[in-house]
Each structure stands twice: as C-alpha cells, then as structure tokens.
Amino acid sequence: MRPPGTPRQPLGEVSPNQRSRVVSARDHGIKIGAISRLEGLGDSTCRKIYKNASHQVSCITPSRTGAPSVLTPGDHRLIRRAIVINPKITAQQLFISCAPHSSKKTIYRYLKKSGI
C-alpha cells in the first residue's frame, strides 16, 4: 500500500505471459496475495485477471480499437514514390499531389512515423 499523498504509479498493460502465469498460479491453489507479490502486481489486478480469464479464449491482448487510418497502403506507396522522384518535396506538395483526401498534418505525421 502506498503512503497517503504519494502519486499513483502510472497504469501499464500486463503482458500475455504474465497474465497466464497469474491464472495458472491461481489454478494451482496459490493465494492472490502471494501471486501479486511474486508478479509485482496489485491484488485487485490479479483478481481481475483471474476473473476475466474464465470468459476469454486466450490471454493474448486483442488489438486496440480506434479510427481507421486515413492513408491507405496505396497512399503510402504514392508518397514514397513521390519522395524517391523528388527528395526535396514538402508535405504540402505531397498533400496536393498524393493524398488530397487527407490533411497536410496527416501526411506530416506519416512522414515522421516512417522516419522520412
């Protein structure tokens, strides 16, 4: 338990391997408190992992949901082709010539993410 006034530890995802260790340890009769100490997790986290395991197919984390990408794989190819032809092209010019359905900011983010 943390002392009053100290900030909470940031939330993090538990790996599929760690979740399966928690479930198998509980199935073998080890108490939640002991599991949480061994794995370095909170008691409530271990309880929740064990409770959710009964209705899950596997311990693998499903992919996150969210808005689909505005740029298609075809747009990615067009942008890369335009950069190969003219390495000094700007994000504004790429927006106009390759992907006018997106925004200049989206093009810029894609370039930054791709390391271009």
Automatic annotation (TrEMBL):
* Top-level division of the source organism's lineage: Eukaryota
Cite the residue spans of the region called Disordered: 1-25
Task: Spell out the SUPFAM superfamilies in the cross-references.
Answer: Homeodomain-like
Note the InterPro entries from the entry. Answer: Homeodomain-like_sf (IPR009057)
- The name on file for this protein is Transposase Tc1-like domain-containing protein
Source organism per UniProt: Hyaloscypha variabilis (strain UAMH 11265 / GT02V1 / F)
Q: What is the lineage of its organism?
A: Eukaryota, Fungi, Dikarya, Ascomycota, Pezizomycotina
